[in-house]
Amino acid sequence: MATVSPTPLLKDELDIVIPTIRNLDFLEMWRPFFQPYHLIIVQDGDPSKVIKVPEGFDYELYNRNDINRILGPKASCISFKDSACRCFGYMVSKKKYIYTIDDDCFVAKDPSGKDINALEQHIKNLLCPSTPFFFNTLYDPYRDGADFVRGYPFSLREGVPTAVSHGLWLNIPDYDAPTQLVKPLERNTRYVDAIMSIPKGTLFPMCGMNLAFNRELIGPAMYFGLMGDGQPIGRYDDMWAGWCTKVICDHLGLGVKTGLPYIWHSKASNPFVNLKKEYKGIYWQEELIPFFQSVTLPKDCTTVQKCYIEISKQVKAKLGKVDDYFNKLADAMVTWIEAWDELNPSGAKSAELPNGAAK
Amino acid sequence: MRTSPSLLSLTIDSALLNLSNIADLSPLPDHIVLDLFLLPARTRYFLSSRHSTFESQLPLSFLPDVLRNSEIVLISETCTSLDYRVAISCFSEALYFGIELLFVFGKMSLAIRDDEIDIIIGAIRSDLTSFMNEWRPMFSRFHLIIVKDPDLKEELKIPEGFNLDVYEKSDIDRVVGSSTSVLFSGYACRYFGYLVSRKKYIISVDDDCLPARDPKGFVVDAVAQHITNLTTPATPFFFNTLYDPFTEGADFVRGYPFSLRSGVKCALSCGLWLNMADHDAPTQALKARQRNSRYVDAVMTVPAGSLVPISGINIAFDREVVGPALVPALKLAGEGKFRWETMEDIWSGLCVKVVCDHLGLGVKTGLPYVWRTDRGDPIASLKKEWEGVKLMEEVVPFFQSVRLPREATTVEDCVVEVAKAAKERLGSTDPVFARAAKAMLDWVNLWKSVGSISSSPAV
Prior knowledge:
Chain A: It catalyses: UDP-beta-L-arabinofuranose = UDP-beta-L-arabinopyranose. The structure holds 2 protein chains of 2 kinds. By secondary structure, chain A is α/β, with parallel strands linked by helices.
């Protein structure tokens, strides 16, 4: 019997991107798991505030001034006063993999009481293939103790590269405001011991609280949109990125997984504040979902950037009439790609950009 | 800035907390009802109904701010049909006052009577004593149909105390004619049971499966779980990352469109297996000692457009809705008496999924688990029948490419279309497919003649 090989740490290939507005105390709990890695902290809100990073972490920190300085006029595509600003971290990272987590997410325990190393599980998910073309009823077939079920064609058993690993949350579930208002006391206590590939052609609501992805495979698609200050909508940043990402993954034959690992989500945000932010989104998503479900990308869109620009054109053409916001968003999507390409020139060694000063 | 509470405001606060206990608001004076539900102009409400009790879980500390600042307030979560009337009466009040009420109704769990369920067992082995006794706590309430594999020579041994009908080769020959009875040999014998059943819900498990235990050690009532799956909506059009939103303690996540939250009818429920998972022979032979010990506590809807290998070992379906689509069609040349030597259920399941996708019905997978006992030798099975695994290379792309015409609006029509397509596209690849296509048509005819009329079962 084959022994399970240990999961590589990938400490020089993975950046942890954390958006924050207040403090990073939560990192203390993650220290055993995060300390080997480089952190990219994106400080939202007032840039004159000093964010204290716990001792012993290797990090770079960017506040709004840094974002404006680095991107110049293109900084307009990065949201302000919303955790959507985190995607700036994806852009400036030089690593192959990104893990992003919210500052109110802590280490969860599995049913046996053991601490869950979420990052390790995400790495496992990203390093092993996905199977989006045919659903495996035993979920992830590459996991220890599992395999493909009878009837699964052998030609599909190699799978495709995994671009995204979407983790879940125990305790405060990721509900929208109306659901939070109706069920303010509901806690997610169900540990579902599974990872699965989201089938090709199926969209899903991607939550940015506990998310990892292969930046080289899909990075440019992870634009978290225009949210927060001066925008009519909030709390749809990760949704937007998720729909774009899934459409592009489906087109390029990449996989998206969801399920383990769990983190412990501790903070329930105020549902009435959330409702105000989401209100437009709740109505707009009725248009957005059919839009994304019907997006087709031409065959000559062979890179993520080309796919993304094509989507932005369709956003302008078809969603501009839903609200002028989508015209702005389509423009911002183009700006994002331009900025991404500028900061990540293909082929060249990306060492020219200085890191933000560690404060 | 809160003004000090008045008796009225305290009463209203308390009433809101106890709204679930107030079945009928009509005795209340109008202005109290209005105060209870309606707010100053330009205020809107979400009313969301889901489970069978009407509960308000709003912490009151939130409410005063909302009354002042917010546009939308949620009142309650759930509705029985009684509370529907309360909700509707609020709705008309609200309309009168020019206030918009947005209703978001979820599922209501249906109460199923025991006599709507048939448990159908295909007896591949003659001694069903321990099987039936182990399942007795779960099965004894229901009517059972046991269909004996026509190839089985020995007498069936069935313990006492069940309400059941047994069908054997002679019955099958009598009902469908000896030329068509070949459809029902081996594992496919259970389809005869599906044909003659007159119940709405069918649950079927292989005769080498026993009740499983969950991680807490409790015995899993597979029947109850299948019924729950079939009687709560499926959500095939958008993936819910917390899996089944209708289960206790879960819901739709942020980003899930509200218009899709009522779901569609669930036509089929596929359960899973602890111990011997349903791997094919090569896989089980390679991993001879592998046993499935992972209990995944989830039910989920298989998304529309996504195909799935549906194992027949542990399934349940709504016979009224989708019965004809479970087809005993694909008979492998070397088909035998171990699941490793069959693919009939996989073909059948792909057909069901294609039909469900076309008709807007749902297919769920996940719980319940059954415990599948060790039986047989995968290497011996592989030697006997190895073509099935190869055939999947043709079968899956075929089903993935089937497009049903808009005019196919009934399940029978859909099955006929799939059969036609199978004959056209696969018939020349391997005679087994041409036979399968024909079997599907024979099955549909049988269903129309035998499956739809009410006849009294023999024995």
